[in-house]
Sequence to fold (258 residues):
Amino acid sequence: MFPSERKQKIVTILAETPAVKVAELSELFQVSEVTIRRYLQELEEAGLLKRTHGGAVSITTASFEPALIEKEEEYLEEKRTIARAALDLISEGDTILLDAGSTTLQLARLLKTSKKQKLTVVTNALNIAWELSFDENIDLILTGGHLRHRTLSAVGPVADNSLQGLYVDKVFLATNSLDVERGLSTPNIYEAQTKQRMIKAGHEIILLADHSKFGRISLGFVCPWTAIHRFITDAGAPAADLARLREQGVEVIVAGRD
Fold:
């Protein structure tokens, strides 16, 4: 099989499955992993795939983002468990920022029924703002920005400029994708930029993400793991990945584990 035929076969495989591994392709084609990595680099440069740690994903996988209404129902109990653990980190009088996301939405719902007083909450999420808008114990600040209807998040220059003028105690960050080597990413580049502004605005950065986000890489890079102080996930998260994150200095909290 000629190199061009192998590369075409890789593209065909990615049309049928969302990801491929270098080791698997090396065995399939009976060539070295160095050769496979070169093929993947050439295909990425041609815009036919996106490389990941140890393999590649299709362009569709890298840029696909489910609607909020779809994400909200997935792994709902895990997200509620993560949100309960996050609530324990919030003290009375805190100034916090809630990023747009289905798990941070669960945290907002818990805040409504908590007895924590004198909280200031900043958010770029329309649905989170609505959840908290009737609670007189919460001083609510909306960033403004360009509304993404798919996620109900406000992003872009208006949101970024608003965040640039703020400083909060804790940022509760959401993400679509996380990889132990590549860090956090999200399909929309404007969303990624707004998340970067959130990170700069916070004294402590706390990531909330369920186990389904592991091993994913999306189009827009958000940050490396060095930017994250605490990571709250559920018991379904891969133990080996959690161990590697702890080695990198991230405090990992597995919600619901005694």
Q: What stands out?
A: The longest helix spans residues 3-16.
